[in-house]
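Recall from the previous chapter that SMILES is a line notation for molecules. Here it describes flavin-adenine dinucleotide.
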Amino acid sequence: MLSISELCVILLYIYLTEINKMNYDIIIIGAGPAGLSFARSLADTNLNILMIEKSSIDQISQPAPDGREIALTHLSVKLMKELGAWSHIAPEVISPIKKAKVLNGTSPYFLNFDNDNSSLEALGYLVPNYQIRKALYEQVKNLENVEILTDVAVTDVQVGSISLSNGNKFEASLIVAADSRFSESRRKMGIAASMHDFSRVAIVSRMEHEKSHNQTAFECFHYGRTLAILPMAGNMSSAVITVSSDIANSILNMEPEQFNLHVQEQFKNRLGSMKLIGKRYSYPLVAVHAKKFVAERFALIGDAAVGMHPVTAHGFNLGLRGQDTLAKEIKAAIAKKKDIGSSIVLAKYDRKHQAITKPLYFGTNKIVELFTNDTLPAKVVRSVTLRFANHFAPIKRMITNKLTEKDQKAYLPFIKL
Ligand SMILES: Cc1cc2nc3c(=O)[nH]c(=O)nc-3n(C[C@H](O)[C@H](O)[C@H](O)COP(=O)(O)OP(=O)(O)OC[C@H]3O[C@@H](n4cnc5c(N)ncnc54)[C@H](O)[C@@H]3O)c2cc1C
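With both inputs in hand, we obtain:
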């Protein structure tokens, strides 16, 4: 039989051992835009945060252009402002999208979205991805409670602990994975995901053109391919061509002059002559939705939770929103002096973010399915869908409201690719 003092010593020993194990409160895997924004959201807490990124410090502090132009909703701009990152993006690279037109097949008919709310400058804003990443890094690099380790990959994840490629191990109350749509940690923590390989590739590039785009985004669902032309600052647009994987190389390898004529012709000369500026980048289109966003002392954010097909431009918008939801649940737990990694806290995040992402994910995949189906019945449905949306004012208003986020509960469907 143990005496009370012996029992106290044992309990103290167990307590101290446990305390020592918790090296950090939170470990974030991945310093992409989702991981960085989450770290910044927790800047005003006392939480001790470790961030692990496999690429180099130069790659995250001075990210190179990657061809992605990100359409941000008003809610995302608000969140970026709250994080202090918006003011780090030069105004001249932010391009307002004032109108959007959706075309189908060979028809000149289009579904039209205007910004009819005079209090808002635009439907949304187009910003280069690398500028977003740079601005977020600027906001995180000097935070006292965030330590960033670069050039080292997370190789294993267990409940409350991670192992690194350099042999180090760390422990935390909560591990948050922001390690891309192909997240290895998601798999290691036993979380299943719906994955859809579209067998298509998005080829993105910047193009200068003769005529003004008038801040209009165009989405052309041609037969066999889609072309999005997104307004950048000046007489420049981002061209996004989506084609079946087997013909992607033939477009990527075209001589620049041939490529210019190809896009010009596909876009029916609407912007006059067009000229490729810089490189073409390609992204194989695979969409992912994790069945749950949490496991024991573990949460998924960003593309690791939901990796969207870019057609509706939801990806980073959802990533920003998800990290904000998780950060708010964590702060609420701190205020109530509760365990930040408890299943109750994580379940709230899971429930809220699943409710927002699931309909968008599966809805987007259905849109892609319909508008890349070139059979005769599908062509008819495609045409009817656009005409219906154009003439049925409540539907159009709902989409525009969501786009501008006049309705704060709503969320953007931004037709883009
Ligand atoms: C062509 C295209 C257009 C897009 N357009 C839009 C748009 O208009 N609007 C929009 O909202 N979204 C858009 N998106 C989506 C958006 O780009 C993504 O949602 C966003 O970049 C995902 O950020 P993330 O931080 O979750 O993941 P990522 O950017 O993939 O970052 C993951 C990070 O984790 C690191 N990492 C991975 N594994 C490990 C490991 N084991 N150890 C350590 N580090 C690791 C990686 O190095 C990387 O830095 C588009 C995407 C594409 C491809």
